[in-house]
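S.,

Sequence below, as promised.
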Amino acid sequence: MSFKAVIFDLFGTLVEPFPVPHYHRTIGAMAGILALPQEIFLQRWQHCYQDQEEGRFSCVEDTINAVCCQCDIAPPANQIGSAAHLLLDFTQNIWHPRPDAFDTLAQLHSKGMATGLISNCPPEVPAAWPSSPLAQLIDHAIFSCVVKVRKPAGQIYRMAADELHVQAQDCLYIGDGGAFELSGAKSAEMSAVLLSVPGEEDPYNLSPEARVWAGPRVKSLSEVVLLSRTHFAYF
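The prediction came back faster than expected:
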């Protein structure tokens, strides 16, 4: 018996790992637009990053306003808009799909399987998602900042299953181990598999669960097609 749906993580899974240095440079450039010290702005921005993922800010501009308020400044609307545009432009240009992502998703669809996405992310990601080349191959995408629930909370996995009209037990979850997402999927009664690409380093500890995961793993997305055909038990 095959799975009915395969649900993927985004960064580090369907697309290449999140480019942390480039992101920090972008936040620094935003600080320059807002006439704020880069180090202070980056520190405050990072401090509220979980709030961004949990949907406590409705858009990038709201986040900028909140951080500026903490810094006791109130930039004019045109500066806030320019800073927000910089971050949105960065986000729209970091969709670098894995080499086998398109073929994997197409094959899953050809076999009648639904495809989903669950991502812990700030508001700029769902804002940029429609322009992603992968968007047309994902049946339903769930972003933590939109639903206001983050992985590894079981609720976000159940939301994904409900949106795909399947039971959680019939879902295969694929991720690189960020936010202990694999344990979360398993707790939600999904089958979970670690994507561990040979030679790919994790210098910023974006995928802490990858180091301790004892469950099944694959080295490439293309392996998911074969794996999706049969339910398996954990060991």
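Strands lie at 5-8, 114-119, 140-143, 171-175, 191-195, 217-218.

Coffee later?
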